[in-house]
Design brief:
Layout: H1 7-17, H2 20-26, H3 34-41, E1 47-48, E2 63-65, E3 68-70, E4 74-76, H4 82-85, H5 89-100, E5 105-106, H6 114-119, E6 126-130, H7 135-147, E7 152-156, H8 166-171, H9 181-187, H10 191-198, H11 221-228, H12 235-244, E8 249-254, H13 257-265, E9 270-273, H14 287-298, E10 303-307, H15 313-321, E11 326-329, H16 331-362, E12 376-377
Parallel strand pairs: 4-11, 5-6, 6-7, 7-8, 8-9, 9-10, 10-11
Antiparallel strand pairs: 1-12, 2-3
The protein binds flavin mononucleotide (FMN).
Flavin mononucleotide binds at residues 25-26, 39, 77-80, 107, 109, 128, 156, 252, 274, 276-277, 279, 307-310, 329-332.
């Protein structure tokens, strides 16, 4: 196995191994990709305060997320079509998360179904749900998650309509991939990916085909998707979803303090400060810049997590020091998955953990629970000093 010392190493292998259509699907933001880029680059504006001659033995990154024990404050974010990045990708990712001791969140738009993941893992996972119009489908999704022993539901609130990603349109993104001369020519250079894909039956949207009314075959899926996402979503509707699920609830996709307050009012247990990895509103603030005002507004009322842009343990450390209880990673683990399946996701987690643990020590802290803003140097005006 090649030496994997940073997430970027996994990304290079991933790019070689996976068809361009799916690499581009992952490695894109919406429109100009400003928010996608700034999600990561804004972390570089925050500095870590080095301390010396402080006993750094006996370090621990273990903590709790929504009351659940985790080996470090990291969760695997819901990522649609993961099973196209690697055959049975959701099962591989969930297994790696389970072995590492961090939560795995399955997307509504996954290839492996809730039941597939439950049958092939033993740790409870989290289930992400999109806010769709179809009440029956929504109730069934929550019921299926309950039956699969999911330990939290995650409602994603930032996708009432889809931000445009140019490459997906140009590549004709679909699952399974449409066979055009261009896509076939590209897939012929991805032999290992293709051989593994041929060995699995899981090549369609497992949570939807056969479960949503009128979607019994994959060709009817695109019509269903276009018609199902609810542009009329409001907080009352989210309250209805809260009633459909009696377990821990996380609301994902908050970037504004006012929305964070609304999420507290619907009885969520946690929120995820997120702009969907820069895939929705291009021109929105990066998550790390949005975090401080949200902490000020709701930090004492609800558990606050953050995602979007995290590529290293140092990024995790900065977000935690600014008050996030946990960080979710999307692309950072998908690179590992596409590169080498479960092993690659484990490598991504190992790399991030090592960076987090070592950097925490070099900041003079030995327990992740004691990490606070004192370890950071944040430039004045980092979170914005905006015109009203
Ligand atoms: C390829 C891809 C697919 C995604 N699909 C979903 C999804 O189905 N549901 C969801 O709530 N978020 C989805 N997201 C957003 C992630 O959950 C997460 O917010 C984002 O990836 C975090 O940014 P990062 O990739 O920079 O870590 C997706 C992200 C990517 C990159």
């Amino acid at each position: 196995m090649p030496h994997i010392t940073e997430i970027e190493d996994l990304k290079r292998i991933y790019r070689r191994r996976v068809p361009k259509m799916f690499y581009d699907y992952c490695e894109s933001g919406s429109w100009s990709e400003q928010t996608f880029r700034e999600n990561s680059s804004d972390f570089d504006d925050i500095y870590l305060r080095q301390r010396v001659a402080i006993d750094m033995t006996g370090r621990s990154t273990a903590t709790k997320l929504i009351g659940q024990d985790v080996a470090m404050p990291v969760a695997l974010a819901p990522v649609g079509l993961t099973g196209m990045q690697h055959a049975d990708g959701e099962i591989h990712a969930a297994r790696a998360a389970e072995k590492f001791g961090v939560p795995y969140c399955l997307s509504t738009m996954s290839i492996c179904s809730i039941e597939d993941v439950a049958e092939n893992t033993s740790a409870p996972f989290w289930m992400q749900v999109y806010t769709l119009k179809d009440d029956d489908f929504m109730q069934r999704l929550f019921d299926r998650a309950k039956a699969a022993n999911c330990s939290a539901a995650v409602i994603t609130v930032d996708l009432q309509l889809l931000g445009q990603r140019h490459k997906d349109i140009k590549n004709g993104l679909s699952a399974p991939p449409k066979l055009t001369p261009k896509s076939v020519a590209n897939m012929m250079t991805k032999v290992q990916w293709g051989l593994e894909m041929l060995q699995t039956k899981r090549r369609f949207f497992g949570n939807i085909v056969g479960h949503a009314k009128g979607v019994d075959d994959p060709s009817s899926l695109s019509t269903w998707t276009a018609e199902s996402f609810d542009q009329a979503l409001n907080w009352d509707r989210i309250r209805e979803f809260r009633k459909m699920w009696d377990g821990p609830l996380i609301i994902k996709g908050i970037i504004d303090p006012r929305d964070a307050l609304e999420a507290c009012n619907v009885g969520a247990d946690a929120i995820v400060v997120s702009n969907h990895g820069g895939r929705q509103l291009d021109g929105a603030l990066s998550s790390i810049r949005a975090l401080a005002p949200i902490m000020d507004a709701v930090g004492d009322k609800i558990e606050v997590h953050l995602d979007s842009g995290i590529r290293s343990g140092q990024d995790v450390l900065k977000a935690v020091a600014m008050g996030a209880k946990g960080c979710w990673i999307g692309r950072a683990y998908v690179y590992g998955l596409g590169a080498m399946g479960e092993k690659g996701v484990s490598e991504a987690l190992r790399v991030i953990h090592k960076e987090l643990d070592s950097s925490m020590g070099l900041c003079g802290r030995t327990d992740i629970g004691e990490v606070d803003r004192d370890i950071l140097m944040i430039p004045k005006g980092f979170s914005g000093d905006w015109e009203a």
